[in-house]
Amino acid sequence: MGSLSSKSLEDAQEPAPSAALPAEAAPAARPAAEAAAPAECLWVHVRLGGCDRDGFGLHVWGPSASVGTRWDAPLAPSGEDWYGLHFHVPLAASASAGGPGPALGLLLHRGEDKRACLEVPESPGVPSAGEAIWFGHGEGFARTEPSPTEVPAGDLGGLGARAHWLTREHIAWRAAAGAPAGSRFFLHASAAGALEDGGAAGIRNGDADVSPLELSRAEPGLTPKLAELHPYLQGCSLLGLPAGVDARRLCRYHLAVSMQASSGEMLDCTGVQIGALLDELFAYEGPLGCYPTDADLAAGGVSLALWAPTAWKVSVTLFDGPRSPVSECLPMERRGGPEDDGVWRLSGPAAWWGRYYTYRVEAYHPAAGRVASMETPDPYSRMCAADSARTLALHLPTLLEAVPGGDPASWRARPRPPLAHRAAAAVYEIHVRDFSASDPSVPSELKGKYLAFELEGTHGDRHLRRLAAAGVTHVQLLPSFDFGSVPERAEERVEQAVPEGEAQDSEAPQAAAMAAADTDAFNWGYDPVLYDVPEGSYATDPDGPARVLEHRRMVEALHAKGLRVVLDVVYNHTHASGPDSSQSVLDKCVPGYYHRRSESGAYENSTCMNNTAAERAMMERLVVDSVLHWATEYRVDGFRFDLMGHLPLKCMQRCREALDALSVEEHGVDGPRLLMYGEGWEFGEVAGGQRGTVSVQRELGGSGIGAFNDRVRDATLGGTPFTDPRVQGFATGLAMRPWPEDAGVDQGTSEAQTRDLLVAMDKIRVALAASLKHYCLPEDCEGNADVAGSEVHGGGVAYASAPVEALNYVSAHDNETLYDNTVWKMSPSLFSPQERMRANWLCTSVIALSHGVPFFHAGDELLRSKSLDRDSYNSGDWFNVLDFTGQRSAFGVGLPPKPKNGEKWGLMRPLLRDPTLRPTPEMVGASAAKFCELLRVRASTPLVGLTEAADVLEKVSFPACGREQVSGAIVMQTRNGPAAGASGGAAGLLCPHLARVVVVLSGRLDETRLPAPPSTSEAGLPLRLHPLQAASEDAPTRSARFDAEAGELVVPPQAAVVFIEPLPGHEDWRGDP
Fold first, then answer.
1. In percent, how much of the chain has pLDDT > 90?
2. Domains of the chain
3. What is the DSSP letter of 1014?
4. Is 642 a catalytic residue?
5. Which of 679, 805, 869, 871 is catalytic?
6. How confident is the model at residue 35 (pLDDT cuts 50, 70, 90)?
7. pLDDT, mean of residues 698-711
8. What percentage of the chain's residues is helix, strand, coil (to nearest 5)?
9. How far is residue 513 from each of residues 400, 620, 699, 878, measured CA to CA in Å?
10. Of 113, 505, 642, 756, which is the active-site residue?
11. Which SUPFAM superfamilies match (predicted)?
């Protein structure tokens, strides 16, 4: 928690000497002995002004604390006084030194409402048990009780802003709800950004012509409409503004509200958040960025437009080149009166095309507490200089030098790989740099570049073509927009220099990798700076048009290989915020607007940093505009939304509607064929609908937007990414070959493991049925009958209304690779290399043979390892090796980087040293062949991967489920019949060749015989092995058979087997599509 943003409570000023202190501010006597801290505790006093103190607790962490607290169970206060709340924090008898983070961390919070934060470093160290400290009113902490004259009344300094100007008429403030009788409320404003908390004497430096304005108590709570729009503010009182207040003018000011006692002393004060008000006053749909003044570019010249309603002044700085000095500085203009739309505009001659520019914005910034002068590129940039430093003035649709082949019409008309239905997709995730950085067949100057995808005959090219031929339809690229975590100019990078020949569990490789982690060419790229510009480090030249042209060529090259392209987009946060960082863009244009702030004013960072606020009209617009830009100007075929659950559902629905409106005739894009899916996790400040309806799994049914199903991942592999990585699942030996009792892996008793396995199997069944919430499981493992998919074992597995809304997966770039997961869970003392390899195959089979959209991580098919690295986002090429030939594995190339993995090094060392755990080239080759076999089965067999919910609900069943099932084996049957919406007859059948398909997934470690489901067709031809599996390169797969005499399916250990019943006349079907 040491990285959490906390409220700034500093820079307090003493009240005027003549000011009388209110009675509430009189120093309270130290509480009686019963409230004093026990001898083993530190007595911590935390500043919390005002009357609103209910529900606050103290989050405690660090080695000096005897016990840390959970976020959802903070330490309760031991009492309160004039200063705030106080707590008894138990200290450890002795604390280990040298670990990351502070010796003691303390954070006052109420849910996600974070207030004062204190991190005490090892030096000078933590005060002793029995002592008292006070913090929250300035820097650090005090060991003696401060005087009330030294303490501000509220939290006006820094980001403190607990008041919310929601409409022209109303400001919401929770503190007002508990205000003493006779309290009065005021709005204060300063154009210079100079308001100060003067303690009991009141707020200083307000502009006399506009403040203070007395506010009325309008409502005891939010109106129904406001409560719906701002659920997290329920319980706040509404304060009314006087008639005639010029809200448009005041939006530019430094604003604060205060509460005064009837005697005139200030009891509390805070800043004001104005995002909702800006939406009401200035939401804008007109052109933004750089665009032609006239259809004739040469004659009409250039227009620039920036939405910056809180700015006092905006100017444009022009440059002749990406590194040249300033050429001109020109002021922008803003309309006045009722026509003021918050947009600053400037027009120039056609000579501006091809020149670079930045904006200089002067506006009050809450993070600075002052009016700041800030330079930024255009947030609507389409092209830029290296490292996002300057925007290039251009009109992208007509810029010939950025068009493959130089002919826009021809380029836009080029065909894409066919896709019959969005739910027919099969997605393969890959990182742009990983694709070629380790490929010896790629020229050095193109390693890690967009253009490596264009090369033919490389190992990567041959591999992707093989996957496309087998059935992969889409390549999903990790972020390829402009991100801020890699220096874009090669001469400014320092690459990894990892020593060769180190021991398999050496610390040296990770130390070398971390030394260059922030200066080398590798990062996953989840650090957005400019959303609509391709990343420059992947281009041969980061300045100018090369990055645009080469990204377009990459997409075109993947299309030529038979693969559509999905972009990984990250609209939930930005790389930087504030007035100073060169990589802060949105927060300089409209400070405090584009980023989501807590009720108390801090910038939320639950996504990892700088959460955006797409509930705001202009952030929502930016997202929709950006998606359309990439779809039309780069001809991509879909979008994967990072942490989609932090984006409002309304925003995602607008994106879906905007894409669906694109047509081949008008836009060169078949919009309804473009994919949209993402991470529908629910956590942080958006959990429980606190910021309205967001795009989490449970809300997406019927939207046509997909969400990753983490439940099938966990059921198949075992555990979760947040538990002991050794916990087993369906495919990794749970209840089949468990850990010995002395191994230190807590999986419960034998009976508990068997139950956990059966529960996991039920969850997998529901996921195989496209995670449809309306699918009915006839009986679960506990004997419950007719269980709705959405309710199976507590719910959460099934949330979709259509197959396209379910993304089934077992591995992705996050967390350990699939192979590394099986290394963790299948100890070499318990499992052979072949069994571990077959477990990988079984995991992949669960995904490949499911209904819904299958998703695979690059290297799943190659037993890819990252030396057990659980988060390789910044680990460099050394740990992220992707070798398509199978000759080079990153298993045992050293301990993975300490920051994310150090606590498990002790468990990792014996694994990394074990030579039997390193996959051989022969194992990699067999795994790639099995992966392609599974894909061909799916692509060739219409009854595998149904695309319509009605077909899944009617035709998919799970024989032998329920209380009497065989532990460790899942049987799924999909029968043929008229396709949903078809008129009937043979032409309307789902499959022209087969009466039914029976899929068996066995995690058992012995050959298994299962009762064969009876035929439902009139002909009733016998089941037989799918012809593609009958010709499998894997001998155990070929051994699977239907024992007609016994009426049983015979399945080898750790296998996924597909049996078919042909339709009459199709007995010789060989697996052709």
1. 88
2. 41-142 (2.60.40.1110), 163-281 (2.60.40.1130), 956-1062 (2.60.40.1180)
3. P
4. yes
5. 679
6. low
7. 98
8. 30, 25, 50
9. 41, 38, 41, 7
10. 642
11. (Trans)glycosidases, E set domains, Glycosyl hydrolase domain, Starch-binding domain-like
